[in-house]
Write a structure and sequence with these properties.
This is DUF4243 domain-containing protein. With about 350 residues, the chain is an all-alpha fold. It has helices spanning about 5-15, 30-40, 45-50, 70-75, 80-95, 95-110, 120-130, 135-150, 165-170, 185-190, 195-200, 210-230, 240-250, 260-280, 295-305, 310-325, 330-340; strands at about 20, 25. It contains 17 helices and two strands.
Length: about 350
């Protein structure tokens, strides 16, 4: 079986499950299998799924259909998850997927924190797969991703960049929320009252045009991936999303109208900064206590696949792209640190 067929079969299996389990945890299966297939691990996908799917819930039932007239009242209502999944299932079946994405991206983007940023991350993986090969299973996956994002839609306070800082310096200047306890909802809720939050977001240098927005977004993804290496002990799992969320947006840009690229940068920057504010440690780990990168990017992804945890796999997927663009060995070392801090899954 070729890689395309493996991914489509994996999607079909996963689409019999819901986008969440145990009440609110995100179903990472579609994101992880897309990364595994793209990095040459297709032969292991179904065995990985056999283990992973034991934890998943069934598809949620709907309450009442979402319509073009009342969608705003249903936005961000997790009780309407089943309704949103059904709505986008129809949308991607009846309209070109790029048209659906272009219409809904600006509506969903302000709620970029949805599902601890998993709404946009799952969408980015789905778009990445569609840009490689378009078929019904991948269109359905985009519908599932957008439906999940809409149901869990959650905004973060936005400030348009107007400063001079490059992404790495801007990210380093993000203040921590004062109460570093409880879940992400509690932590993100503190941003609106955090005095240093608006100036920290404004510090990033602005993008003058779509091309500059794309370059800044790539630089932001690099900065977040490298920031993970000394900061991961703050929350090894949650800080993964500071890098994978902007990467998801970056990968979606080619499918979007260029007029949407600058606002996409703004939302990705806010998402990455918000996760950093919520989970970054008080002090970084000294350089002497950090792992070094293995010899090759392929070795790093093999390590992530062998480890088996979905967050390690997704971080590796992002960090390999960063390494390919920049040659920075710290991007590969970040994956090694994640694998050392996050409990391994036994699946092969």
């Amino acid at each position: 079986m070729d890689a395309d067929s493996t991914l489509d079969e994996a999607y079909e299996r996963l689409h019999r499950t819901g986008p969440e389990f145990e009440g609110w945890l995100s179903n990472h299966g579609p994101m992880a299998v897309e990364a595994l297939v793209r990095h040459g691990q297709a032969r292991h996908v179904h065995r990985w799924l056999d283990r992973y799917m034991d934890r998943l819930d069934e598809l949620p039932r709907g309450l009442s259909p979402v319509t073009s007239d009342d969608w705003r009242t249903a936005l961000g209502d997790p009780r309407r998850l089943g309704d949103w999944l059904a709505f986008f299932d129809r949308e991607v079946a009846e309209r070109p997927w790029r048209e659906v994405l272009a219409a809904w991206w600006p509506r969903l983007l302000p709620g970029v924190a949805a599902g601890a940023t998993h709404g946009v991350i799952r969408t980015g993986h789905a778009v990445h797969a569609l840009l490689e090969h378009e078929d019904a299973a991948r269109r359905a996956e985009l519908g599932q991703a957008l439906g999940y994002w809409a149901a869990r839609w959650q905004p973060v306070p936005l400030t348009v960049p107007s400063g001079t800082a490059e992404p790495a310096a801007a990210l380093a200047g993000v203040p921590r929320v004062p109460d570093q306890s409880n879940g992400i909802g509690h932590r993100l809720g503190q941003l609106s009252g955090l005095a240093g939050w608006p100036p920290a977001l404004a510090a990033l240098r602005p993008a003058g045009d779509p091309g500059q927005a794309r370059e800044l977004l790539a630089d932001l993804t690099e900065a977040a991936a490298l920031h993970y290496l000394p900061s991961a002990h703050g929350s090894p799992v949650m800080l993964v999303h500071a890098a994978t969320a902007p990467m998801a947006v970056l990968r979606t840009l080619p499918a979007l109208p260029r007029a949407q690229w600058v606002t996409s940068l703004h939302a990705a920057w806010a998402a990455s900064a918000a996760v950093t504010a919520a989970y970054a440690p008080a002090e970084p780990t000294p350089a002497g206590g950090l792992p070094e990168a293995p010899g090759s990017a392929e070795e790093v992804f093999e390590l992530a696949a062998r480890h088996g945890d979905e967050h390690v796999i997704k971080l590796a997927d992002t960090c390999l792209d960063v390494h390919a663009r920049t040659g920075r060995p710290e991007a590969l070392a970040a994956v090694v640190r994640a694998a050392g801090l996050i409990e391994a899954e036994t699946w092969r």
